């Protein structure tokens, strides 16, 4: 039972949600899916919260393509991402992330991609995958709409640069092409990830790498963008290059995240093999994708 | 801004239109048990880990400890109490009974919902698919083998003939 009396609102569009939020941003919490917010309220972590604005009927659950850009609404559940043919065909990395979210079908029905980013839990799957896709967050506030890269939105563990009077509306993602790999280390089927790695590799007409992206999730407080393009771009892909890129991941971990699931030392130690597995999967997918174009 | 300490929640519960006065800070599982008197969904962890509170809301299974009761306004909620047809158990319930797939019974309603949800979309699941489908539910008696067997049995009985 949430000890404080709560006022609950279910706005029917974004304008109504913004208006409700503007009444008292300091004591209002936005509900995206509730999988993190509701237990937090129940534990009484923040006693100042008196009002919940539930965004799930505010029309922010759309998935649509606009040319090369795919819009993913903030209140898209993992199940909606999983079921979307558009996501499966054009953003398969996001599909792979959503399919593997732990906690059972219930959590994939309830958890939302925007909620995950706003909660900014280091172990969550979605922030790292979105950073690998260079996703831009679309944010609405009293002064209008702004866009910021997801990687910049996430400022620390459980911290974002979202202001209290702003609402995360969704994400804009360009189809990256190439092939992806997603690898997740966790203790059991139902447990939180300890480390995730999202990789995207793309080959040009000569078979040389023209895009290389690797992002580690769960290893540091915020998703860690590993500068693998420095060692991979313009090169022909082979096992040595993949190994060198995985080593980059290990070298990039300077301040690992530590929690009840794993120590920082453990996370730093698993960074290389987790990255390696994602890169190997991306390598196969990129080669296959290029063959299909020849 | 005035905040009421109780709110009126109207919903359809196991096929019956119901109304109750509910504390405004109640979780859905608490309201179902305390205010609507339906004790099938259990309150276990209250963090979304154990799945014992699972219900079907508007056709989708959810963990009702992660939902505010206020958010269930106008929703159609089905609990374990709503699965049987009178005295006749649903095929999944019957399979759990026949395989003795419960010990203390605390996880049972969540397991049954997870199994029903799987078999709706995948009538012939592999063992791996069964285990993944119940991965959001914890059995504190660790009776997983019998639970997986029950889902296999239910699938066998419910599946349309091959070919």
Overview of this structure, please?
The complex is a heterodimer of chains A (294) and B (163). By secondary structure, chain A is an alpha+beta fold. Chain A has 3 domains: 7-54, Uridine Diphospho-n-acetylenolpyruvylglucosamine Reductase, domain 2 (2-Layer Sandwich), CATH 3.30.43; 63-174, Uridine Diphospho-n-acetylenolpyruvylglucosamine Reductase, domain 3 (2-Layer Sandwich), CATH 3.30.465.10; 179-293, CO dehydrogenase flavoprotein, C-terminal domain (Enolase-like, domain 1, 2-Layer Sandwich). Chain A is built from 12 helices and 14 strands. Chain A is globular, with a radius of gyration of 19 Å. With 163 residues, chain B is of the alpha+beta class. Helix content of chain B is 32%, strand content 17%. Chain B is built from 5 helices and 5 strands; from the N terminus they run ββαβββαααα. Chain B has helices at 28-35, 91-98, 108-121, 127-133, 144-158, and strands at residues 6-13, 16-23, 54-57, 60-63, 76-78. Chain B has a 5-stranded mixed sheet with strand order 2-1-5-3-4, sandwiched between helices. In chain B, helix 2 (91-98) packs across helix 5. Chain B is elongated and about 55 Å long. The model of chain B has no long low-confidence stretch (mean pLDDT 95).
Task: Please describe the topology of this protein.
The complex is a heterodimer of chains A (294) and B (163).
Chain A: E1 7-9, H1 14-23, E2 28-31, H2 37-43, E3 51-54, E4 63-66, E5 69-73, H3 78-83, H4 85-90, H5 92-99, H6 104-110, H7 113-119, H8 125-132, E6 136-141, E7 144-149, H9 150-153, E8 154-156, E9 159-160, E10 167-174, E11 179-186, E12 193-203, E13 209-217, E14 224-226, H10 229-232, H11 239-252, H12 264-293
Parallel strand pairs in A: 1-3, 2-3
Antiparallel strand pairs in A: 4-5, 5-10, 6-7, 6-10, 8-9, 11-12, 12-13, 13-14
Helix pairs in contact in A: 5-8, 11-12
Chain B: E1 6-13, E2 16-23, H1 28-35, E3 54-57, E4 60-63, E5 76-78, H2 91-98, H3 108-121, H4 127-133, H5 144-158
Parallel strand pairs in B: 1-5
Antiparallel strand pairs in B: 1-2, 3-4, 3-5
Helix pairs in contact in B: 2-5
């Amino acid at each position: 039972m949430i000890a404080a009396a709560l006022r609950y609102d279910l706005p029917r569009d974004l304008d109504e949600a913004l208006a409700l939020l503007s009444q008292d941003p300091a004591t209002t919490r936005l509900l995206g899916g509730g999988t993190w917010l509701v237990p937090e309220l129940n534990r009484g972590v923040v006693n100042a919260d008196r009002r919940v604005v539930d965004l799930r009927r505010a029309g922010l659950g759309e998935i649509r393509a606009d040319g090369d850009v795919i819009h993913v609404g903030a209140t898209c559940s993992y199940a909606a991402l999983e079921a979307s043919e558009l996501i499966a065909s054009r953003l398969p990395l996001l599909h792979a992330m959503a399919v593997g979210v732990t906690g059972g079908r219930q959590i994939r029905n309830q958890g939302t991609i925007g909620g995950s980013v706003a909660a900014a839990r280091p172990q969550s799957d979605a922030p790292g995958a979105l950073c690998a896709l260079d996703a831009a967050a679309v944010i609405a506030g009293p002064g209008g709409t702004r866009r910021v890269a997801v990687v910049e939105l996430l400022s620390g563990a459980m911290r974002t640069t979202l202001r209290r009077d702003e609402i995360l509306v969704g994400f804009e993602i360009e189809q990256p092409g190439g092939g992806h790999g997603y690898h997740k280390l966790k203790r059991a089927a139902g447990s939180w990830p300890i480390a995730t790695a999202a990789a995207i590799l793309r080959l040009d007409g000569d078979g040389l790498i023209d895009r290389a992206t690797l992002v580690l999730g769960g290893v540091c407080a915020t998703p860690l963008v590993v500068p693998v393009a420095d060692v991979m771009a313009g090169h022909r892909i082979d096992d040595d290059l993949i190994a060198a890129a995985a080593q980059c991941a290990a070298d990039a971990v300077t301040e690992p995240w530590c929690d009840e699931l794993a120590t920082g030392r453990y996370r730093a130690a698993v960074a290389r093999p987790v990255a390696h597995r994602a890169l190997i999967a991306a390598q196969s997918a990129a080669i296959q994708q290029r063959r299909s174009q020849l | 801004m005035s905040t009421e300490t109780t709110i009126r929640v109207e919903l359809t519960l196991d096929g019956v239109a119901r109304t109750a006065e509910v504390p405004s800070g109640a979780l859905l599982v608490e309201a179902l048990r305390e205010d609507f008197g339906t004790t099938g969904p259990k309150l276990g962890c209250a963090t979304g880990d154990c799945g014992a509170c699972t219900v079907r809301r508007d056709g989708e299974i959810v963990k009702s400890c992660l939902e505010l009761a206020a958010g269930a306004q106008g929703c159609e909620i089905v609990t374990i109490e709503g699965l049987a047809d009178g005295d006749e158990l649903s095929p999944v319930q019957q399979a759990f009974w026949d395989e003795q797939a419960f010990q203390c019974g605390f996880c049972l309603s969540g397991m049954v919902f997870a199994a029903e949800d799987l078999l709706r979309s995948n009538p012939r699941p592999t063992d791996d698919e069964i285990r993944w489908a119940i991965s959001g539910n914890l059995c504190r008696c660790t009776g997983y083998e019998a639970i997986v067997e029950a889902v296999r049995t239910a699938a066998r009985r419910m599946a349309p003939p091959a070919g």
